[in-house]
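Aim 2, interim progress: modelling of the flavin mononucleotide-bound target.
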Amino acid sequence: MAALPPQAAELFSKQKPFFLATASKDGIPNVVPVGMFFVGEDGKLWLVDNYLCKTLKNIKENPWVAFDIWNPESPESYQVKGKAEIVSSGPDYEKAVAFAHSKKETFPAKNLIKVDPTCVYYTTPGDHAGKKLL
Ligand SMILES: Cc1cc2nc3c(=O)[nH]c(=O)nc-3n(C[C@H](O)[C@H](O)[C@H](O)COP(=O)(O)O)c2cc1C
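Predicted structure of the complex, ligand included:
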């Protein structure tokens, strides 16, 4: 299991939403805005599924996802790839429900999606662009 590097994790407090890319088993890409998320104690990215459709279907077929996180105050940016896990019961799921309901009681919070950040690359323009960080 990997964890987001601290400098990338910190950017999640600065960027909302970010865009999550998935692909079907046939390789058809899909990208959606996601605004309800936090970095869990396990270092994974935890997303709340309120209204996801194709994204959820894709993750069931192909768990690999990708996203980019960047600092709107500077060009600092990281590309993350990892496997997503759908959690729909248990204590971690209940934490995600509580998080969603702290924003608005009527959010459906159908699932918690945990992304294990397997690979992280610099996307900041310059010498490190495209280089692997994790
Ligand atoms: C700014 C913004 C933030 C959003 N955040 C979330 C979110 O955190 N969770 C969620 O389930 N849907 C969120 N949505 C809605 C999904 O992006 C939307 O339901 C989308 O159609 C899902 O597409 P899909 O069918 O390709 O999965 C957000 C939409 C916008 C515009």
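The first strand starts at residue 18 and ends at 23. The mean pLDDT is 94.
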